[in-house]
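Sample pair:
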Amino acid sequence: MTLEEKGLPWVDHHLDITKKEHITPEYFGINPNGVVPTLVHDGVVIIESDDIIDHIDQTFPEPPLRPTSEEELVKMYYWMKSAIEIHIKAVKTFIYFHKMQGKMKQSEEQKLLYEKLQTNEELIEFHRHTNETGFSSEEVAVAQKTLDKFFEEADAILENNEWLVGDQFTLADITWVPLHFTLKGAGYDFSRYPAVQAWAERLQQRESFKKGILKWCPVF
């Protein structure tokens, strides 16, 4: 979405994670966590999605996707960092339980290769969990409580503002709309948050959403 908002040319190398196309020595050689996305720009490799879009916006500042005031800049980074911090323990847990349970299980060969390549203990534990026992309803309840906290906060903000950070469309919105898209597809109940739903509908009208998300994943 960020690349599309900037109107930048880019080359994609699509990996189908359901087919375990990311579990290769070659890809782990680029991204040591073995996750997507990865950006390679002028020989520089960036592996966290919030860092990727921040790099794009700062390297190509027009049109700007960040607020000008220091106070609102802090708010933007709060939303971006929060999305990363809760991704495994809340977002992935909720989605795997409701939509992917049993579907992403690795073969014994894939499991051994993954654990040989992977050095991130949180990701090793997550995938070990999905391979062996799956997630319990109690674990998912904790994940949902975390998600509810953030969407309650977002709903309160969006009742009086068009975007997550005041009235300017920023990287914060770009960070959270894919989470809304995938969580909705996994059955998360957004009817409790009408302002968040209206925000998502505004975002879905943007060409960057259509080209940056729907082109790759029309339905989740």
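The domain at 2-214 is CATH 1.20.1050.10 (Glutathione S-transferase Yfyf (Class Pi); Chain A, domain 2).
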